[in-house]
Amino acid sequence: MTVVTMLPDRRLLLVHAHPDDESIGTGSTMAHYAANGAHVTLVTCTLGEEGEIHEPALAQLAAAEADQLGGYRIAELAAACAALGVSDHRFLGGAGRYRDSGMMGLATNEHPRAFWQADLDEAAGHLVEIMREVRPQVLITYDPNGFYGHPDHIQAHRVAMRAVELAAAEGCAPLKVYWTAMPLSVLEAGMTHFAESSDNPFAGIKDIADLPFGTPDAQIAARIDGTDQHTAKEAAMRAHATQIPATSWLYSIAGNFGGEFMGVEFFTLAVGEKGPGAGPYGWEDDLFAGLPEETAPDRSPVGTVSDRSSVGAASDRSSVGEASDRSSVGAASDRSPVGAAPDRSSVAAAGLR
């Protein structure tokens, strides 16, 4: 017997590179929308096989040893999603289809299954399949430099933006696409506050311009206040114990700033029209702001539990059109770095790998 699945009116799709990226970068946003009734779908592009291991007892799971870290991180990701209240998680192309490429410039970038080597249209095709099924109005991914220059983050951006183009031709593309961002004012305030702290995550960084990320406040489109979900975000981060040690500066900052640090996340708008906002730059406080009511589904069945591949097209809706920056997508054969590879010391200081 076929069981019909009905999806909520608001549907949010996130495309992340590795397990833990979703929790660190967008955890409060995911938990906020899930708690308020939206359907939140997370797509993770790799298993994170090349990650560092901060659990000594699990050190031999590393890629250079037993190479079992990826499988272990599947369980960590499942626990993180549960903490965020997200039940719809997929690996792009299926678990293990694409491998963690490691940091830019390493030999692991050339692994035949490295996500950095993925055929762009093939990988985007996997994402379009999910878009056909879920029909998200809003998508979140990274900017063209993958926020801080990691090849898998850059590739996740390329794949997501190419999928938007392909899905637009079918009328199932999201109406708004956001990129994760960090306002320069927030970074400057952080550097000032922690200048004399023993837990200074900015130690060794002399100028804000030395960081591989940071967005002028005027370019920020949305500020999502999920402080009511900051404990969910912290719980999700703690689920990634192999990647984020209990002594991480992230938790030290959380202790000082509490819900404000854990609960507020920022985004730039890459595709679609900005909705009503507030403040000097008109920042949105809702990623669905400005979307007309008629973009909501007609509540007709959009999928089945028994056979996801049999999902037909939902009611036709207008195309979102081309992505705002095709040049950022890049050809599938282009493996050159988008921007200079980040200084690893500055990346480590920011808590990124």
TrEMBL record:
**Cross-referenced Gene3D superfamilies:** LmbE-like (3.40.50.10320)
Q: Which family does it belong to?
A: Belongs to the MshB deacetylase family.
Q: Which GO terms describe its biological process?
A: mycothiol biosynthetic process
Q: What is this protein called?
A: 1D-myo-inositol 2-acetamido-2-deoxy-alpha-D-glucopyranoside deacetylase
Q: Which NCBIfam families match?
A: mycothiol_MshB
Catalysed reaction equations from the record: 1D-myo-inositol 2-acetamido-2-deoxy-alpha-D-glucopyranoside + H2O = 1D-myo-inositol 2-amino-2-deoxy-alpha-D-glucopyranoside + acetate
Give the UniProt keywords, A-Z: Hydrolase, Metal-binding, Zinc
Instruction: Specify which residues bind Zn(2+) according to the UniProt entry for this protein.
Output: 18, 21, 153
Q: Tell me, in a sentence or two, what this protein's role is.
A: Catalyzes the deacetylation of 1D-myo-inositol 2-acetamido-2-deoxy-alpha-D-glucopyranoside (GlcNAc-Ins) in the mycothiol biosynthesis pathway.
Give the gene that encodes this protein: mshB
Catalytic activity, EC: 3.5.1.103
Question: What is its cofactor?
Answer: Zn(2+)
How and how many cofactors are bound, per the record note? Binds 1 zinc ion per subunit.
PANTHER family assigned: 1D-MYO-INOSITOL 2-ACETAMIDO-2-DEOXY-ALPHA-D-GLUCOPYRANOSIDE DEACETYLASE (PTHR12993:SF26), N-ACETYLGLUCOSAMINYL-PHOSPHATIDYLINOSITOL DE-N-ACETYLASE-RELATED (PTHR12993)
